[in-house]
Amino acid sequence: MTPTRRKRRLRNQGESVRVLRLEPTRGWGSLKLRELWDYRDLIYFLLWREIKGRYKQMALGPLWFVLQPLFSIVLNTLIFGVLAQLPSDGLPYPLFNYTGLLPWQFFANAVTKSAGSLVNNQNLITKVYFPRLVMPIVGALSGLLDFAIAFGLLLVVMLYYGFVPKVTVLVVPLFLLLSALTALGVGLWLAALQARFRDVGFMLSYMLQAWMYATPVVYATSVIPSRWQFVYQLNPMTIVVEGFRWALLDKGTINWIATVISVLGVLGMLVTGAFVFRRTERTIVDVV
Q1: Can you give the pTM of this predicted structure?
Q2: pLDDT > 90: what percent of the chain?
Q3: CB within 10 Å: which end of the chain, N or C, has fewer?
Q4: What pLDDT is attached to residue 34?
Q5: Whole-angstrom distance, CA of residue 238 vs CA of residue 191
Q6: Are 169 and 247 in contact (CB under 8 A)?
Q7: Taking the C-alpha atoms of 150, 155, 157 and 160 in order, what is their torsion angle to the nearest 10 degrees?
Q8: What long-range pairs does 61-69 form, CB within 8 A, spacing at least 24?
Q9: Do residues 204 and 112 make contact, with C-beta atoms less than 8 angstroms apart?
């Protein structure tokens, strides 16, 4: 018996027919944040898989994440500290550079992983259902272990130059959180775009390179003219880098008004990026 004939028969018998209507969720409900919490075990598993895959078949293992920043510090010191003689707020240039390079590398890696999370995991997302928002979140958090290893090296460098961490070191996680949220917000937008336009992956490295030079990683903010300082502080990564130097070395200045505006901008980018990502998620299996 066909569904149409069965419905007609039920009506003739005086029985009510229940019709289930499926509609896409709108507004805040479309983000399905509760669903992310239900899949928290998956986030943990994918993070663990990412870490194991990164260290697998590496002779030096985690030591590479110490050698990489050391190489960057030596290279930047020779080019920007010795040859270009850029100001470093009276700090030894290697220490000055490292406190800026550490949060920047975390941010750059998080953006790269988040932006490519859909394309790089297309075999997984086309086979089973789970909230696709899990993938960029895992990408943004996957560098935490690398950061912890490199941060331990930073403490050693600080002690070598006679800097002892003060109580302000306790606010470092807040600046790290701002860096992660910024990376996730950017990554959500780029992941949605990269799923449709693979050119975004090629443009990303140039965008990050330009963004780094717009952030006081290799130079002090004092080189920026005073009339542009407020605009310059609106860059959330400027807040993060200066916040690290302020919290660890008691150097640098933070414009708290610009910081509040920057944080609100990051939250806005994060929310809008999540909505755009969710809209892309509906057809992601067809285009990825």
Answers
A1: 0.82
A2: 23
A3: N
A4: 73
A5: 24
A6: yes
A7: -160
A8: 62/145, 62/149, 65/146, 65/149, 65/150, 66/149, 66/150, 66/153, 68/105, 69/98, 69/101, 69/102, 69/105, 69/150, 69/153
A9: yes
Specify the 3-state DSSP secondary structure of 207. Answer: helix
Q: Whole-angstrom Cα distance, residue 185 to residue 266?
A: 7
Q: Is the pLDDT of residue 12 over 60?
A: no
Predicted confidence band of residue 244 (pLDDT cuts 50, 70, 90): very high
Considering only residues 288 and 145, tell me which one the structure prediction assigns the higher pLDDT.
145
Rounded distance between C-alpha atoms, residue 176 and residue 65, angstroms: 18
Does position 100 have pLDDT exceeding 60, yes or no? yes
Question: Which token pair is 218?
Answer: 């290799």
Cα–Cα distance, 86 to 29 (Å, whole number): 50
Q: To 10 degrees, what angle do helices 134-141 and 172-194 make?
A: 140
Between 142 and 21, where is the model more confident? Answer: 142
Which among 179, 239, 223 has a CA at the least distance from the CA of 86? 223
